[in-house]
Amino acid sequence: WTDPLTRLDYAVDLSNHFEEDFNNEGKNVLIGVGIYTKFIFKIRVYGVALYVSANDVAADPKLREMAGMSAKELKQNEEFFKHLLNMTDGDDRPIEKTLVLQLNMELSADTMRSSLDADWKLLDQRLKDMVTNSSLRPREANENMLERIADKKLNPNRCSCGQTAPNEFRANKSCCSRGTTLSFTWL
């Protein structure tokens, strides 16, 4: 799915999206996309996508109650968002959720980290810490990131978003380029 405002692409199903094996189709499907905007200049900073199991969504009685609501009503319903972030299955066990952030502009890794910590009112501190400590931690760049670092057109500043690369890449760990995807999964 392509967001019409940012032209960022989001997988509809994560079964083949990441290096990890998500095992089967429908386990992590796109259920919503939002855009984080700085309102002073109406700058679209990054997109946020939430993925959950299609079966879990279909079986959730609270979401069935909300099924008749319009997109506008759901956007204004804080309870809807809190429920999505804290959903459980029929046996009251937490279900797996995946949050994917895609940058619409180059940002410093520190700016990204502070934005997640300060501006996300629906995430509790445990989830904020999980996002910043897992997605922005130093680690070796994988093949996809090495390609992004080397792409002078898409990434002129060689941003690696905290990831280390061999010296010949001249990677800049302090910034994240447009199109960089940060994701994390939790129960």
Written overview of the protein:
Helices cover 29% and strands 22% of the residues. The protein has seven helices and eight strands. The strands form three sheets. A four-stranded antiparallel beta sheet has the order 1-2-3-8. The chain has a two-stranded antiparallel ribbon with strand order 4-7. Strands 5-6 form a two-stranded parallel ribbon. The model has no long low-confidence stretch (mean pLDDT 83).
Q: What form results from the Cα inertia axes?
A: globular
* Low-confidence parts: none
Number of helices: 7
> What's the average pLDDT?
83
Helical amount among residues, as a percent range? 25-40%
Please tally the β strands and state the result: 8
Output the radius of gyration: 17 Å
What is this entry, summarized?
The chain has 187 residues and is α+β, with helices and mostly antiparallel strands.
Topology:
Layout: E1 29-38, E2 43-52, H1 54-59, H2 61-66, H3 71-75, H4 78-85, E3 97-103, E4 107-108, H5 109-119, H6 125-135, E5 139-140, H7 143-150, E6 163-164, E7 175-176, E8 181-186
Parallel strand pairs: 5-6
Antiparallel strand pairs: 1-2, 2-3, 3-8, 4-7
Key features of this structure:
187 residues, alpha+beta, 4-stranded antiparallel sheet, two-stranded antiparallel ribbon, 8 strands, 29% helix, 22% strand, globular
